[in-house]
């Protein structure tokens, strides 16, 4: 693998899935963050369990986990991975203006799980919106980014601060 260039383009410039067969299996982890901004009254309904569609947090958590497992079906050229662990945490933010999403994905394999973590956070956020849109349509989904990645040849990445 030394000196080899990983690219989604072949010699003719056509899109291809990167061949990772020569890469060694290593333990890999990625953590992604997201946020759904909403009015305090909407957040209060979620936390009290009074949302008309039911348990919003449980549904968003399961949706995020399921999405991580289906990432290669959603993102072109993304490798299907044997994910060993997915955890989606949802918590009210410190200012009470929404829900913070943290998605942690782990595997042992030849490629990382950043896309799976990002997909989990994104789908959890979309599910929060879907479950609450009858009460509030102007919620905002944002701040979806990788905050940690470890494993593989590129080593560890930790985002210094969440903007």
List keywords for this structure.
MoaC, lyase, Alpha-Beta Plaits, alpha+beta, 4 helices, 163 residues, EC 4.6.1.17, MoaC_sf, single chain, 5 strands, 5-stranded antiparallel β-sheet
Task: Provide a descriptive summary of the structure in words.
There is one protein chain. This protein has 163 residues and is an alpha+beta fold. It has a single domain (26-152), classed as Molybdopterin cofactor biosynthesis C (MoaC) domain (Alpha-Beta Plaits). It is built from four helices and five strands, in the order βαααββαββ. A hairpin with a 5-residue loop joins β2 (83-92) and β3 (98-109). α2 packs antiparallel against α4. The longest helix is centred in the C-terminal third of the chain and has 19 residues, at 114-132. The chain is elongated and about 55 Å long. The mean pLDDT is 91.
């Amino acid at each position: 693998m030394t000196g080899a260039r990983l690219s989604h383009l072949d010699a003719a410039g056509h899109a291809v899935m990167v061949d990772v067969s020569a890469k060694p299996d290593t333990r890999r982890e990625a953590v992604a963050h997201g946020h759904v901004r909403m009015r305090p009254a909407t957040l209060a309904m979620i936390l009290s369990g009074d949302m008309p569609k039911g348990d919003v947090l449980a549904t968003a958590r399961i949706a995020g986990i399921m999405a991580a497992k289906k990432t290669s079906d959603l993102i072109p050229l993304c490798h299907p991975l044997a994910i060993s662990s997915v955890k989606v945490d949802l918590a009210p933010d410190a200012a009470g203006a929404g829900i913070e999403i943290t998605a942690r994905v782990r595997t042992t394999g030849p490629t990382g799980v950043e896309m799976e973590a990002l997909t989990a956070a994104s789908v959890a956020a979309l599910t929060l919106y879907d479950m609450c849109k009858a009460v509030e349509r102007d919620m905002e989904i944002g701040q979806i980014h990788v905050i940690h990645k470890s494993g593989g040849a590129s080593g560890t990445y930790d985002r210094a601060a969440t903007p």
